[in-house]
Amino acid sequence: MPKVLSAVACNLDVNILAACLPLMEESRVEAIEWSFDALYKVKEMPSWFRELLTAFSNEKRLIGHGVFFSLFSGKWLPEQESWLRHLERTAAEFRFDHITEHFGFMTGKDFHHGAPLNIPYTTTTLNIGRDRLKRIYEACRRPVGLENLAFSYSLDEVKRHGTFLEQLLEPVNGFIILDLHNLYCQLRNFDISFDEMIALYPLDRVREIHISGGSWEDSAVAPNRSIRRDTHDDAVPPEVFQLLEMTIAKCPHLKYVVLEQLGNGLVTETSKRCFYNDFLQMEDIVRKNSNESNTPDPFLPLFPLSTGPVVEDMTLYQQQLELSSILESSASYAEAMHVLTQSSLANSDWRIEQWEPYMIETAVKIAQKWKK
């Protein structure tokens, strides 16, 4: 195992920066993860923030995390082409150690407003995902990775996710960000054990781990169940630290453990102090499980890559638009389920007949939260 670095997700947000500053002043932050596509509203990056990124870049301690690419959109969108060109320019300015993206496709008509939701695991989506990952690699020429998803509609999806990730990443010899709070959401929402779940992931492909917090939401359609949501707006729960302790030694190529929290959860001095303490607890776990070694970087393509015409599937794209519309407009689970059964998704690869009612209800809430 290479030396594992304790990192923070640090973006141009006053609350995040204020929470990170004490850790940086104490020289505890060994790397930073930057969501390079989240500055779309900023006309010009402040010089001091550019200097911060450059300092970590020069030490090969800067990693890039994409949010808005919408990897599995069935149609190739102009915004995706623009995203790649932006990545190409940014990667020329900063030396990223690797680049990552979220799994799923984004709901919402506006490219920058949506939530990543799951897709059917088919040959079609596999080919689309592989095509997009190759294009990301061509734009950055750095190791490329994907983050495991926090949201699934069914236990069957949960159990198939790790294998599908491995198949996706194979052509680019990519890696996985194992987000342990996302894993925690799946464990709790589908009553599956950690041992059963972790055995379904190719842990030799894990180069980065995320830890974060989230929230609970009561279900109206399952009165005795609370849904764990990956909202990133609270401190890291003890269970996620336990997952880190149980997982870290299982990942032979792990290089980064990253603490994430959104700025809207770091407004008060108490929340900032909790963030500081969470980092120290993470740092302690990392230090106990990290040994310096000269393991070569295993996550660059093994063979030259080539991309032909963009892979698209208009049937999938229309189904994605239809699903997004249903989720964004339904007043309840019952209405969403009724419309879904009358839609093109019924009796299809989406397997809506297996979807858990409380997860459809949750998908409605997620989509409507992000709808603008």
Alpha-beta classification? alpha/beta
Oligomer: single chain
* Total strand segments: 12
Order of strands across the main sheet: 1-2-3-4-7-8-9-12
Give the helix proportion (percent range): 40-55%
Count of alpha/pi helices:
12
The pLDDT mean sits at: 93
The poorly predicted ranges are none
Percent strand equals: 5-15%
Query: H/E element string?
Result: EHEHEHEEEHEHEHHEEEHEHHHH
Measured between the Cα atoms of the first and last residue, the distance is 44 Å
Radius of gyration in whole Å, from Cα? Answer: 20 Å
How is the main sheet built?
8 strands, parallel, barrel
Q: Per the principal axes of the C-alpha atoms, what is the gross shape?
A: globular
Please characterize this protein's 3D structure:
This protein is α/β, with parallel strands linked by helices and 372 residues long. The protein is built from 12 helices and 12 strands. The strands form 3 sheets. An 8-stranded parallel β-barrel has the order 1-2-3-4-7-8-9-12, surrounded by 6 helices. Strands 5-6 form a two-stranded antiparallel ribbon. A two-stranded antiparallel ribbon has the order 10-11. The protein is globular. The termini are far apart.
Keywords:
alpha/beta; 42% helix
How would you summarize this macromolecular structure in one to three sentences?
With 372 residues, this protein is of the alpha/beta class. The protein has helices at residues 14-25, 47-58, 78-93, 123-140, 155-169, 180-189, 194-198, 238-247, 269-288, 314-329, 333-341, 357-370; strands at 5-9, 31-34, 62-65, 99-102, 105-106, 116-117, 144-147, 175-179, 206-211, 215-218, 226-229, 256-259.
